[in-house]
Amino acid sequence: MINAGILGSTGYAGAELVRLLSSHKDVNIKFLDSRTYDKEEYTNPYPHLKNKLDKVCKSINIFESELLDEVDIVFCALPHGLSQDAVKVCISKGKKIIDLSADFRIKDPSLYEKWYKTTHNAKEELKSAVYGLTEIYREKIKSSTVIANPGCYPTSILLALYPLLKENIISSKGIIADSKSGVSGAGRNIMDSNLFSQCNENIRGYSIGEHRHIPEIEQEIAAFAEEEASIQFTPHLVPLNRGILSTIYADNKKGVTQYDLEDIYGNYYKDEYFIRLFSRGELPQTKGVSGSNFCDIGLKVDERTGKIIIVSAIDNLIKGAAGQAVQNMNLLFNLKENSGLEQMPLWP
Ligand SMILES: NC(=O)C1=CN([C@@H]2O[C@H](COP(=O)(O)OP(=O)(O)OC[C@H]3O[C@@H](n4cnc5c(N)ncnc54)[C@H](OP(=O)(O)O)[C@@H]3O)[C@@H](O)[C@H]2O)C=CC1
Ligand SMILES: CC(=O)N[C@@H](CCC(=O)OP(=O)(O)O)C(=O)O
């Protein structure tokens, strides 16, 4: 049995971890950290787990808690900037840690500090963190101690682009990604602009060219292509609970055909349980992945405009957060990669 603890367990990403881990046959949840619900039943804020999870929340002081000695792995689902101490303590105690925040994703700490407008206080630990995009960094993940679980938008964009960049079919500069996210992407600490009355029946773009996921996406595009990268990224908030749909445009610099494109993606992803390719004009949709760890990818060569268009769909809370974290944990502990993640999407 793997003993696991969850920091930030009552946020939306934390709650998805709790839901997935509580039905994972190889995992025993040891602690559920929460300041707001300290000493309260976890099912008070999360009644969907009633009678299935008999656990009380506890506000954990990472420096003092003896509970840390009882676990093999810590999942950290705290807001950005709060996981650096947790990572330091876990390393010193020989525990594995999967951090769902951005604190260990960006390799260059000055870039993190610039985009996140805060200081990075674990620069040494940052060096050993592995970027947890499972399908791409599987081998490195297996032997790592600190895993930086990717952002939700980056997961949807990077899995969609990887074969094109590795095959040098598109340039690493000038890619355009237009993404739409459900409201749970913003977490449960509601902001005024995310109130039902302002999200429902409404679509709006935000942070155009300024979103914090840009350096993370560019870092990985540059790694895939082995050259400098730039992306024009526009996120939108759409009236869904969960789901991300990314539509990505790039110049077809080698003039590949629709047939070539489908063949290339088929070769790259043929053994990937969680990547489902759509061909012959079919396109993915958020409902097709909702509640699951799948990443659905649709492919289109537009010969008239000379563009390649890739469309990807994920559930932001699962493949974009908790599901990918569980997938990475499975790798760390040599379990089947889809253990605890076999749920099919919900439809309708
Ligand atoms: N939502 C998503 O789709 C995704 C989220 N992530 C990342 O996962 C992490 C958690 O995100 P998410 O679950 O959405 O966020 P939430 O805001 O929903 O939850 C974060 C939780 O952390 C706890 N917390 C502890 N200290 C603080 C603090 N000082 N300020 C605020 N909250 C605190 C809170 O619980 P309590 O008060 O009970 O302690 C809170 O509910 C973030 O780093 C986020 O970027 C990553 C990918 C996707
Ligand atoms: C809809 C919405 O607000 N989405 C969030 C996604 C951020 C998120 O969850 O960030 P990480 O994946 O980096 O942790 C945003 O745009 O800030």
Automatic annotation (TrEMBL):
EC number: 1.2.1.38
Entry keyword Cytoplasm: yes
PROSITE patterns registered for this protein in UniProt: ARGC (PS01224)
Pathway(s) of this molecule: Amino-acid biosynthesis; L-arginine biosynthesis; N(2)-acetyl-L-ornithine from L-glutamate: step 3/4
Catalytic activity line of the entry: N-acetyl-L-glutamate 5-semialdehyde + phosphate + NADP(+) = N-acetyl-L-glutamyl 5-phosphate + NADPH + H(+)
First-tier enzyme category under EC: oxidoreductase
HAMAP family: ArgC_type1
Family: Belongs to the NAGSA dehydrogenase family. Type 1 subfamily.
Primary role: Catalyzes the NADPH-dependent reduction of N-acetyl-5-glutamyl phosphate to yield N-acetyl-L-glutamate 5-semialdehyde.
Name by which UniProt lists this protein: N-acetyl-gamma-glutamyl-phosphate reductase
Organism encoding this protein: Acetoanaerobium pronyense
